[in-house]
């Protein structure tokens, strides 16, 4: 991975996933997946969005230079930069009322109406994402506030937070201690005209990647990329790098789970393997390498087919 404006912390997605997005060698990168008219080229849409984003940035720069250092510049950042920018990515943002969970208030600035309230927290260009304001504002940093909200709510698995300079994708990280996020340095991207980085941003943060409804995070495209990342980072994922090994590992799992199956890998047909797996009750917790497979639906098995 060589994208100067992109920073990955934790295992939210991997550099390998980003590389595959460039080559379009991964699922959910067709025009239909982006909600475009069939036959439309995604690359053309990326180019149009880039041209719009560059225009918004240039106009915002003039306003940014006139914002006093002791002011956050929140209104300018929202109205003349981030709201138009995120609109090019398919988000339909409205101002949001503060949420209250367990007696704590979460003043998240915006929600995406076309994604059933997907949270997007936009702060000012002079705000830090990792430090709270010294004189006023929320009790936590912008990142900390949104992360705590995701960890507590059952409605949303992902969210976006930005100050106009950096744009971060966050995921529920209840069981993690270290910060986990995918960050795009928008200022660097625009000033250095890093089109390749923007293309990655478009392909992974477009609104069509996000959960379309509350409690639908598991079915979203972004979660698929996260799960493939997690799978490939496990010992099992690193070990399974060919269809033969995947085939053998599947039979081994079957034999260990149910005594009526014998560990094999000696030529039994793939459709027999598929039939055996599908014979398990829908409540069975199938291992990730069977659900996700070697980067895709190698047996045509998914939660829906079960």
Describe this structure in words.
The chain has 306 residues and is of the alpha+beta class. It folds into two domains: 6-227, no CATH class; 235-291, no CATH class. 40% of the residues lie in helices and 12% in strands. It contains eleven helices and nine strands. The chain has helices spanning 15-23, 42-64, 74-88, 142-152, 186-191, 195-205, 221-233, 235-239, 243-257, 270-278, 288-291; strands at residues 6-9, 93-95, 99-101, 104-106, 110-112, 118-122, 158-162, 166-171, 181-185. Strand 7 and strand 8 form a beta hairpin.
Radius of gyration: 22 Å
Domain count: the total is 2
Q: Roughly what fraction of the amino acids lie in strands?
A: 5-15%
Biggest beta sheet summary? 7 strands, mixed
Total DSSP E strands: 9
Number of H- or I-type helical stretches: 11
Structural class: alpha+beta
Distance between the termini: 36 Å
- Globally, the shape reads globular
Mean pLDDT: 83
Main sheet: strand order: 1-9-8-7-6-5-2
Instruction: Provide the low-confidence segments as ranges.
Output: 233-243, 263-268, 293-306
Helix content: 25-40%
H/E element order: EHHHEEEEEHEEEHHHHHHH
Summarize the structure.
With about 300 residues, the chain is of the alpha+beta class. Helix content is about 40%, strand content about 10%. Mean pLDDT is about 85; it is low at about 235-245, about 265-270 and about 295-305.
């Amino acid at each position: 991975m060589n994208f100067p404006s992109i920073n990955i912390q934790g295992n939210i997605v991997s550099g390998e996933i980003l590389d595959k997005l460039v080559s379009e060698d991964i699922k959910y990168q067709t025009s239909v997946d982006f909600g475009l008219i069939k036959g439309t080229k995604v690359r053309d849409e990326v180019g149009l969005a880039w041209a719009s984003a560059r225009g918004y940035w240039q106009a915002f720069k003039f306003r940014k230079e006139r914002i006093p250092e002791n002011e956050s510049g929140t209104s300018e950042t929202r109205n003349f930069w981030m709201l138009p920018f995120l609109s090019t990515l398919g988000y339909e943002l409205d101002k949001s009322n503060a949420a209250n969970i367990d007696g704590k208030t979460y003043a998240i600035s915006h929600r995406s109406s076309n994604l059933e309230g997907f949270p997007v927290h936009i702060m000012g260009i002079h705000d830090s994402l990792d430090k709270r304001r010294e004189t006023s504002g929320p009790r936590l940093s912008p990142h900390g506030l949104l992360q705590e909200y995701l960890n507590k709510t059952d409605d949303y698995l992902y969210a976006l937070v930005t100050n106009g300079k950096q744009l971060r994708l966050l995921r529920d990280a209840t069981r993690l201690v270290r910060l986990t996020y995918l960050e795009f340095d928008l200022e660097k991207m625009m000033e250095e005209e890093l089109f390749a980085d923007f293309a990655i941003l478009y392909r992974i943060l477009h609104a069509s990647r996000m959960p379309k409804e509350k409690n639908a995070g598991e079915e979203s495209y972004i979660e698929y990329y996260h799960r493939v990342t997690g799978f490939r980072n496990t010992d099992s994922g690193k070990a399974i790098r060919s269809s033969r090994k995947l085939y053998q590992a599947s039979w081994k799992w079957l034999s260990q789970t149910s005594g009526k199956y014998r560990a094999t890998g000696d030529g039994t047909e793939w459709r027999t393997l598929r039939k055996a797996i599908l014979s398990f009750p829908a409540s069975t917790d199938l291992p990730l390498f069977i659900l996700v497979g070697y980067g895709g639906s190698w047996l045509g098995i998914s939660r829906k087919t079960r």
